[in-house]
Amino acid sequence: xxxxxxxxxxxxxxxxxxxxxxxxxxxxxxxxxxxxxxxxxxxxxxxxxxxxxxxxxxxxxxxxxxxxxxxxxxxxxxxxxxxxxxxxxxxxxxxxxxxxxxxxxxxxxxxxxxxxxxxxxxxxxxxxxxxxxxxx
Length: 136
What we know:
With about 140 residues, this protein is of the alpha+beta class. It has helices at about 1-45, 50-55, and strands spanning about 75-85, 90-100, 110-120, 125-130. The protein has a single domain (about 1-130), classed as Nuclear Transport Factor 2, Chain: A.
């Protein structure tokens, strides 16, 4: 009798709870992306390429050695131009503009870099699946 009387409202409450839980996950993923993308930006700005590599997902899941050429690069600016999130919020394509110079040349250059971030459901973390920027 009670279920017949309040069944509709019970279903509404259950659906609202389920929707709320999914939104909490979305908020957690967005907050995680925001924090990680800022930390990645800082790593590049400080030319900490070994630390920046820890944001990248490698095939072997092990951190690989950084090419010594990166020791000759100093990043002076890093600006996000835009990003696109896929429909299920598990992939973000981010375009950034990076200004840098080679230590021995002192000539500033610009490159546009496309980063692909993917959400790993097992570790509940974002990883960059594209490589480190190719400074030329």
